[in-house]
Amino acid sequence: MASGLDAKPASPAEPPKTAPPRSSARRSVVFIVLAGILAIIGASAAGYYVAMRPVILRIAVGPPNSDDLKVVQALSQAFAHAHSQIRLRPIQTDGATASAQSIAEGKAELAVVRGDLSVPKNVQAAATLRKNVAVLWVPPVMKGKKAAAKITKIAQLAGRRIGVVGRTPANVDLLKVILQQYGVDPTKVEVVQFATNEAADAIRSQKADAYLAAGPVNSKITADAVAASTRDGRAPTFLAIDSAEAIAQNHPMYDASEIPAGAFGGSPDRPEEEVKTISFSHHIVARKDLSETTVAAFTRQLFAIRQTVMNELPLAAKIETPDTDKDAFIPVHPGAAAFIDGEEKTFLERYSDIIWWSLMGLSAMGSIGAWFAGHLKKDERSNNSTLSERLMEMLVAARHSDSTEELDHLQTEADDILRDTLHCFEQGTIQEGALTAFNIALEQFHRAVADRKALLMNIPHLQRAAASLRATGT
Question: pTM of the predicted model, to two decimals?
Answer without folding.
Answer: 0.66
